[in-house]
Amino acid sequence: MAQRVQRLAAYAVIVRGEEILLSRLSERVTKKELWSLPGGGVDHGEDPRDAVVREVYEETGLHVEVDDPAHVYSLHVEDSWRRGRRVDAHSVRIVYEGWVPADAPEPHVTEVDGSTAEAAWKPIADVLAGTVPTVSLVAEALASYRVRQRQRTAAYAYVVRDDAILLTRTSHLAPDPGTWHLPGGGIDHGETPTDTIRRELWEECGLEGRATALLTVLDHHFTGTAPSGRAEDFHAIGVIYRAEVGPGEPRVVEEDGTTDEVAWVPLADVAAGRLKVYGSVRAAIEAAGDQG
């Protein structure tokens, strides 16, 4: 009877647009071209999440973040060769959903004399078509992979005074820096939308204010890459209120946030396209019936 060998390993399925990050097995593992998910054996006493982060860096040179949910795959091969001997092999593979920063450099192998010869982004279509030869785990992981769904509900203030609208500008921490937006933001758990308006007017504009009436509700749905580098199926819902603010010059109060400037902007400048604004600004102006 062949010796029984069991191995626990952790891998990451990392998708960016229409590509997946893969590592090519070295000649010490196989003489033919064969690609796998980045990852590898879990060391004794090592948390699998720590193992996959370590292995992805060793095999691709990239820093990965992984989510808690994972799929577990079991492969039992009674007659297998491992390190020059015949064994009864059982592999348990934990596969996490992972993502790397959107501005990550090109992947490159950092480990020396390891099981990986090359790392690269490969078209998913080529993987599924068999043009890129892969181990069975890649197809199994892709079959289970689902783009993360995320829904965000936010409340925004529509404040107009003397033919000017109160707008905030997104900072470098936002998805589209330098774009002007209505003051507002995500509704905290348990927070009423009108309380969100009051809080955000202070944080982003430094002004005391309140919502007076619901103006409109907008929604936007897209699938793409989030600023973190993670693929998302994103649904944004914006609840827009007419609002009023007290006296004072607007100023940004929050530090290191997604807003870096606030100003009263003439409605005529928005209408003429003299500054870059989100579509929700124009939609709110149209809903209010205000003309610049």
> Rg to the nearest angstrom?
26 Å
How widely separated are the two ends?
85 Å
Catalogue the unreliable spans: none
The number of distinct β-strands equals 15
* Share of β-strand residues: over 45%
Write down the overall mean pLDDT.
Answer: 92
Separate helix tally: 6
| Fraction of residues in H or I helices | 10-25%
Order of helices and strands: EEEEHEEEHHEEEEEHEEEHH
Largest sheet: 7 strands, mixed
Q: Which structural category fits the helices and strands?
A: alpha+beta
The general outline is elongated
Please give a quick description of this structure.
By secondary structure, the chain is α+β, with helices and mostly antiparallel strands. 19% of the residues lie in helices and 45% in strands.
What does this structure look like?
It is a single chain. The protein is α+β, with helices and mostly antiparallel strands and about 290 residues long. It contains six helices and 15 strands. Strands 1, 2, 3, 4, 5, 6 and 7 form a seven-stranded mixed sheet that branches. It has a four-stranded mixed sheet with strand order 12-8-14-13.
Keyword list:
alpha+beta, seven-stranded mixed β-sheet, 6 helices, four-stranded mixed β-sheet, 19% helix, 292 residues, 15 strands, elongated
Write the layout of secondary structure elements.
Elements: E1 3-16, E2 19-25, E3 35-36, E4 39-41, H1 48-60, E5 65-82, E6 85-99, E7 116-123, H2 124-129, H3 136-144, E8 148-158, E9 160-161, E10 164-170, E11 180-181, E12 184-186, H4 193-205, E13 209-225, E14 231-245, E15 259-266, H5 267-271, H6 279-288
